[in-house]
TrEMBL record:
Function: Seems to be required for maximal rate of protein biosynthesis. Enhances ribosome dissociation into subunits and stabilizes the binding of the initiator Met-tRNA(I) to 40 S ribosomal subunits.
Lineage of the organism: Eukaryota, Sar, Alveolata, Perkinsozoa, Perkinsea
Biased amino acid composition, Basic residues: 1-18
Family: Belongs to the eIF-1A family.
The protein, known as: Eukaryotic translation initiation factor 4C
Key words, A-Z: Initiation factor, Protein biosynthesis
Amino acid sequence: MAPKNKGKGGKNRRRGKGGRGDVKRELEFKEDGQEYGQVLKMLGQGRVELQCLDGVKRLGHIRGKMGKRVWIQIGDIVLASLRDFQDEKCDIILKYNVDEARPLKQHKEIPDNIKINETDLMGNEEGFSDDGVEFAEDGSDDEETAGNLLAPPSAAANLIKADIDDI
């Protein structure tokens, strides 16, 4: 019988002890030099467009510690650290989940017009947004129009005149 492989090579290095699940953490409020924001657009390369609650749109940079561990999506409420030397840029230091954002709203840290509910972000109750595209029926058969598009009338007449023996 072969010995059990307990090394850290190959697939074993990827195997962890499992996720910690939903660990309750203490609610963190903003301090001096920090601002709450909502993600408007994912720009790629660890950057997002934020609408900060002080009314300024900023370019947010996801810090390296959060990069692969915390997934940020459009509509998430985040805590951003403002830069002293660049007012239009900030660093995202914390993402609030839905259960943490609700108490922030109750403590009047974020205004009531900010939507924190996951279903509200999608547009309507079903989770689908209406893009304003409407399809109209014109009443014509698809088979008739498809037959007309395949071959022009002159080509169809030439096919009828052709004799099988000639081929």
